Amino acid sequence: MSEAKRLAGEKAIEYVEDGMVVGVGTGSTVAFFIDALAGIRHRIAGAVSSSEQSTARLRGHGIEVLELNDTGPLSLYVDGADECDPGKCLIKGGGAALTREKIIAQASERFVCIIDPAKRVDVLGRFPLPVEVVPMARSLVARELVALTGGQPVWRQGTTTDNGNWILDVHNLRITDPVALEAAINQMPGVVSVGLFARRRADIVIVGGEPPLVL
Ligand SMILES: O=C[C@H](O)[C@H](O)[C@H](O)COP(=O)(O)O
């Protein structure tokens, strides 16, 4: 699968224009995009990063990392996903970076999502849905998630997000209305964000392959 990820990451370079500040996601697919971005680093103005992990990789390639508060809206955000449905709604957060990813996606005019073919599903929910919670609200939110979804929240023990919070992964979901579920989970006190990207979904999806498929 890593070959498909590489092909998707490299294809996304076609969306980068001279002088851009590029929004950069997190994960193993994005790592290939960052490595390809290094080849054109002198043509871009810098990057806004969604995680400490991506920041380290960008800086390692000599790419300047800027603060979103200093850049204003971005033209382009490139990120991976854990699942993608036919409407380009996504589950993200397998790497615990969902909150910063969602912020940068929202701040960007165009969201290009890069995936391998295994990430494509008809209905979201086979991949456990990550929810970032303020630590003291973990069991409260877990109970509310059971009541709302009927799924099984599991605490991702040992993981603390870049924002100092915890993750609940909700198993056994079948998400038929992603927009409504995203809104309902966002309303729970203690929820920082949910890894359902439906309100701000992908604009373009690149599925890695030979040749890559652009949806
Ligand atoms: O928090 C992590 C992100 O949402 C990733 O973009 C997602 O988990 C996909 O990661 P990968 O490209 O490693 O499969």
Quick structural summary:
This protein has about 220 residues and is α/β, with parallel strands linked by helices. The chain folds into two domains: about 130 residues, Rossmann fold (3-Layer(aba) Sandwich); about 70 residues, ACT domain (Alpha-Beta Plaits, 2-Layer Sandwich). The chain has seven helices and 14 strands.
Look at the helices and sheets and give the structural class. alpha/beta
Q: Which blocks of ≥5 consecutive residues have pLDDT under 50?
A: none
Helix content: 25-40%
**Element-by-element helix/strand order:** HEHEHEHEEEHEEHEEHEEEE
Assign the CATH topology of the largest domain.
Answer: Rossmann fold
Number of helices: 7
For the record, the CATH class of the largest domain is: Alpha Beta
Strand elements, count: 14
Kindly state the mean pLDDT as a whole number? Answer: 98
Q: Biggest sheet, open or closed, and with what strands and sense?
A: 7 strands, mixed
Strand content: 25-35%
Q: What's the domain count?
A: 2
Gross morphology is globular
What Rg, in angstroms, do the CA atoms define? 17 Å
The ligands found in this model are: ribose-5-phosphate
Describe the structure.
With 215 residues, the protein is of the alpha/beta class. It has two domains: 2-120 and 200-214, Rossmann fold (3-Layer(aba) Sandwich), CATH 3.40.50.1360; 129-195, ACT domain (Alpha-Beta Plaits, 2-Layer Sandwich), CATH 3.30.70. It has helices spanning 2-11, 28-38, 52-60, 68-71, 98-106, 138-149, 178-186, and strands at 21-24, 46-49, 65-66, 74-79, 83-84, 90-91, 108-115, 129-133, 152-155, 166-171, 191-194, 196-197, 204-207, 213-214. A seven-stranded mixed β-sheet has the order 3-2-1-4-7-13-14, sandwiched between helices. Strands 9-10-8-11 form a four-stranded antiparallel β-sheet. The chain is globular and about 50 Å long. The model has no long low-confidence stretch (mean pLDDT 98). The protein binds ribose-5-phosphate. Ribose-5-phosphate (R5P) is lined by residues 25-29, 79-82, 92-98, 101. The site of ribose-5-phosphate has 17 residues, from helix 2 and helix 5. Pathway: Carbohydrate degradation; pentose phosphate pathway; D-ribose 5-phosphate from D-ribulose 5-phosphate (non-oxidative stage): step 1/1. Catalyzes the reversible conversion of ribose-5-phosphate to ribulose 5-phosphate. It catalyses: aldehydo-D-ribose 5-phosphate = D-ribulose 5-phosphate. Pfam families: Rib_5-P_isom_A.
